[in-house]
Structure formats: structure tokens, C-alpha cells
Protein: Ferripyoverdine receptor
Amino acid sequence: MTLSADKTPQAVTRRASAAPRFMLSSLALALACALSAAPDAAIAQSAAVSINIGAQPLGDALMQWAAQTKVRVFYAPDVVAGLSTRGLSGSLAPEEALRGLLQGTGVAYRWQGDSIILTRDGGVTSLAPVTVLGNSDPSVTEGTGSYTTPASSAATGLTLSLRETPQSVSVVTRQRIEDQNLRSLDEVMGNVVGVQVVSEDSDRTDFWSRGFYIDSLQYDGVPTTIGLSMYGESDNDSFIYDRIEVVRGATGLMTGAGNPGASINLVRKHANSKTFTGSVSAGFGSWNQYRGTVDMSTPLNEEGTVRARMVALYQGRDSYIDLYHANKKVFYGVIDADLTPNTRLSVGADYQDKRPRGSTWGSLPVVFSDGTQTDWRRSKTTAADWTYWHTTNQTMFATLSHRFENDWEVKADWSQRKSKYDAKLLYLYGALDRETGTGLRALPGYWNSYAQQTSLDLQVKGPFNLLGRKHEVVVGAMRSRYGEDFYRYGFDSSTLASTGNFYQWDGSFAQPTWTASTLRDTVTHQTGTYGAVRWSLTDNLTAITGGRYATWKSKSDTRDQKDSQFIPYAGVVYDINDTYSTYVSYTDIFQPQDNRDRNGTYLDPVQGKNYEIGVKGEYLDGRLNTSIALFKVKQSKVAVLDGDALVPGSFEQAYTTADGVTTKGVELEVSGQLAPGWNAYAGGTYYTSRDADGVSVNTERPRAMAKLFTTYRLPGDWNKLTVGGGVNWQISTYSEVSAAGGTVTAKQKAYAIYNLMARYDFNSTLSAQVNLNNLFDKKYYLGGVANQVYYGEPRSVFVNLTAKF
Structure:
């Protein structure tokens, strides 16, 4: 389609503002980009930008065009209804790219001031009543096709670019989740720089960062207390989230507890479309995996000011581990209503239910009784044919936000999360004789647990002027109540069978006779008030100062504890030039612990200090971000494994504490678009961790890791094909374990896991993708507890077919 010269007004000579304003929010009457921009004639006609837009419905393609060119575009819903584009990629001028997208669609465009107006067949549509939807979150990644985000508020509560944030922040975007087929939180975390995923058994997964356990989890920025692994939250399905943010280092300002590892923030999808749109997919893979998903958005009124989104999926799979099978159901729904142009109400709920059978409790012995290291086939199990570990998580949430004319914003978040698990398991332990396969003993376990957390978070933020400069402030208050009822059943030991020869173990172990249960009731109250100010000291120098006053009170049958702490925060960012900034940050560490020692006593809270200094870079108008950080953490009362000791009366791993622990290291990260059609994520971590005597602690955690994944959409006639691949590498580790005659060292050699992917767009609505993981079928440990190891997944393949409408 050719646009005649008389339809291009002289208004195109106006210059764009470079300041971020709005993110894309609607596929209907208003479609706006995150950075308000109206290019002047030279920029609009000749200055090239990186364009990477695949074949898809025209409305989706225009959203990506607006995000990548920073030009706002307006149209009525019927202008793009039913239309599609084959997409394009390369270094193109914004107007040239737009013409390519619209070619053959019958849609015309014209400049109107700072924006593009679209009409059908060159007609003129009056857009006087059109307003831009109030989705002011510039962090949204869905539909951008990017591996990075323009902004995040996860670290400080202030909406800042990654370069402006004086901490290490990783964002796993919607596009990357789909490219790597990262279907659960543990799969996502396994592909984040500096994070180690540790599987204790078939259904419990822990996360570690910089050598520290991660127990800080947020939903849309609201902290939760419910444990990650016992209730299955580490296996949360990623399909309902727009992105997953990971702030490494202490995050006490926003989470209430300054754990030096990291904080995870799960950000939900929202209903941002004013037209009916959606997708369905079906996939299958190794070990009889099958998965089906539905994601639909629709307006609920003619104006599109009230919108709904519904997400559902069902997944089933066997496993490389004998006896194991799991089904998962997920439902998510949200209604987003623009009560006024500046006021938005979001109300929603999600439900995740996982029902595995053949679940293991613990893992395989790492050494024989004579001290030699074992080497099991990866399908070997310690489960019985009656074991299971069912988990259910239900959440209701509501968010009300209002933006005033002076750019101040007030927001209230309420959420209630109910979780439960029902588990019958079998733990095998003891000294295994290498010759006879005997020596293991069995401990059955049967539990029901119910947990509920209710949280309320109020936040106000905005700009203010002082001494002739513009600054930003955020203040907030949070309160939560967490209650848990834990039922533990006994068993008749006279009905307990012998394990026999473990080499012949096939799970046919008789279930014992269960006896009455005992109840452990726990109630935890947390409150927090926080605030931070971003001071603009000069044009190139900003400082963030603030803190959080947190109170924590927990009462149960076994302990009654309370504590309070002020957690200060400080950071300074200096812009070296238009591309690079250097920063330094400091925060205190205060972290209550749920770990117990070999006497059954809970450990005292961890306390310490966290320092970080680094350099960040931002390229291609924010489409590529880089960072290098040096960090140092000083702590006391740090939990470390107490050999293979257990908490009395349980098979819970016992811990002891180490004082004067100093951890220091370096991290590098690259995320975003290297060139048109070429996305990449890469990074590495190296650190040391020693106590006051210079002895290494937590040696089972890898001191060095590197992760890489990249995709490339082929140009020209091959532009329907996207190919990609990556590698995750970690250095060797070791741990001290008990054996006959004393302690021996069990080792994990350094290893690398290679992965590949390819996607083909048959047309604008239908695509197929294949992911091949662990290409060379590497055998490695993914975790374990005490004297045990859990093997990582062998080579696997998954094929997925997706249709968009």
C-alpha cells in the first residue's frame, strides 16, 4: 500500500520526548507505547531502529511496532479486526516498518501531531473521544518480543529502569519463558544468573543465590510467608505470569526481611485488550508428557473500559523416575476496570492443583557404607507404589490504583492465599552395603497441612520539587497474617515391613497402619512501614535513601518468638555518559529462620550487612541491558548443614550456625536484543564464602556458574523460522558425608547442559515449536539432602503447537 504525499501532514516535524511515559495497554481504541515519541521528519523517515516482529494478528504486531519504535498509534477496533501480517525484521526506519506491516491489509495511516492514526481504506475516523488506557506499568513484557524490560519496581518500589536501579535485577520476560519452554517457577529459576536450583526429592525444590537460600517470594510485589517447597509453590506454573523478576542481594526494603540471597516477584498477566483475542496450544513430549492451554481476553462493555482475561491449562506426565506420574490443573481469571481515565481496579483469582503419585521423600544414597560413592541409574526410585504428595494453592487478590494529575499515584493491594498439602511418603535411610544391597531402613510419613495468608499493602509514590530539582518518593505500609495447621499421623511400627535388597527395590512396600494425628498450630504476624527517596543531586548523580521498620511475631506449640528491626537502605547511581552508569548500594540483613539444630531448637535470626558496587549499560534505546556487579556480604548466625544430622523426632535436616561468614564475588549479565531478530540472555557468577577461620561454608553450592540462551529469527524468505540454543554450566562441588569409619567427601564434577529450540510460523495465527533439553544426555546431580543425591533430568524433547486468534 502506498500513502500519497498529501496525506502526510507537516506535523511530523515535531521532535519526540525521550522520557518514558506509557506502556502499551490496549488493542482497541488506544494502543500506546511505553515511551511517548513523535519523531521529527529526519527520524521518522531515515533513522533506523531494530525491528523484530513475527507473523501474527495485525493488532499484536502493531503493539510490538509501537514498543520498538516508541511511536503512539490509535485506531478503532474494527480497523484491524480479522487482519494479520507476515511480520518483518531488520534495521528499518519506523515509517518504513509500519508500511511493511500494513502492506496488503487495506489499512491506511496518517500522522496527527505526535501520533499515528490508522483507518480502513484511507478513510478518516474521528478519534476525539479516544483516550489511552491507564496501564501505566512500563515493565509489561507480553507482546514486546523482548528479553528485557524498560523498567522494574521490584528493588525499591520506585519505577526505574534497570540501569537506574542500584542492585542486580534479572527479569525473565514472557518471550523468554515461551522460547525456552519454561513451564514452572523452578525451570525459570534454573535459567537465572547466579541462581542454583536444588531438588530435595521428586516434589520439593529449593532456590539458592550467591550461596544463600531464597525464601522471599512476592506476588505482584506483595510478600508471602508460605513456604516455597512444601506447598508446591516452587512448581508454580509460569503460564499465568507476564514476567518473573529476581532481585539478587538483600531486599529488606520491599520484602521485610533482608535475606542476602534474592527475592522473587511473580507478576501476573492482565486483561489489556479491548478486542477479543487469545491463544490455544497443545503439546507433547518425553515420558508421555502432554499439555494443553487456553488464554482468552475480551472486553465486557462496548467502550472496553471493563475487560476480562481467563487462563486455563491441564498437564500430565510420567517421569524418567520409576513409578512417578503427575497431573496439574491451573485456572486464572482477572477483571481489569478503568473506573476513570486515571483509576483502575483489578480483581482476580488463581488456582493451581498438582497431584503426583510415586512421590519420593528424600533421594538416593550418595555413598555406600564403605565410603565409596554410588552411581545409580537415573530412573531408580526410593518411593513406594502408594506414595503421593498433593498440593493446592488458591489466591484471591484485588488492586485499586489512582494516578493524580501531578503524577502522584496511590495503590492498595489485598490478597488472600490458601494452600494445602496432603502427603503419604516413605523415607529410606541408613548405611547401604555395596555387596548385598541391604542396610537401608524405612520411615513412613503421613501429613496434612493447611495454610492461609492474608495481606494488605498500601503505597503512595510520586515526584516532588526541592531546591530547584525534581525528586521521587515512595512510602508504604504492609500487614499480613499467616496461619498454619499441620497434622502429623503416627503409624504402627509392628506393621512396618523390611526394605530388603535395595538393588531389587520396585516400590512394592506394604503401607503401614496409620494411627491418630497430632496438631501443630502456627500463627505469624508481620507488619512493615517503608519509605525511600530518590534524590536528584545533579544531572548525572542520584541517590536513594530509605528503610523499613519490620516487626515479626510467631507463636506455635513449640515456640513463641517476636522481633523487630529497622532495615536501612542506601544506593548511589552516577551516569558516566548516555550509555553507562556506575552504582553502589548498602542494606542491612535481618532474616528470621525456620531451620532447627540437632536439639530441635530454632536458629536465631541471621544478621549482617550487604554491599554491592557495579556498572550497568543500556543500548539500543533500552532494548539491551548489561551489568557487572561486585558484592560482599558479612553475616552472623548463618545456617549451614550439620553433616547428616536430623532434627529429633523427624527426618528434617538439622543445621548449625556459623559466625563471621563473609561472602564476596562478581556477577555479569546481558539481556535483550543484540541485533534485529537476535535476542540473548547470558551471564555468570563467581564467589567465595568463608567463616571467621577461613573455612569454606556450604561447599555443596557451586562457586561458579554461567548461563546462556539466545534465539535468532532468520531474515528474508526464511523469516518464519526462529532457531535458538543455550548452555548452563556450573563448577564442581563437594560435601562431607558420614560413612563407616568416619566422614568422606562426596563430589559432583563440573558439568554443562546444552539445550536447543526451533519455532516455525506457518502463518500469522499458527506456529509450532520444538525444545530439546540436555542435548548430550549429561548425567549430573540436581540436589539431595543429608547423605543423598537427586539426579537431573536426562535428554528430553517437547513439541508444542500454538494458535492465536
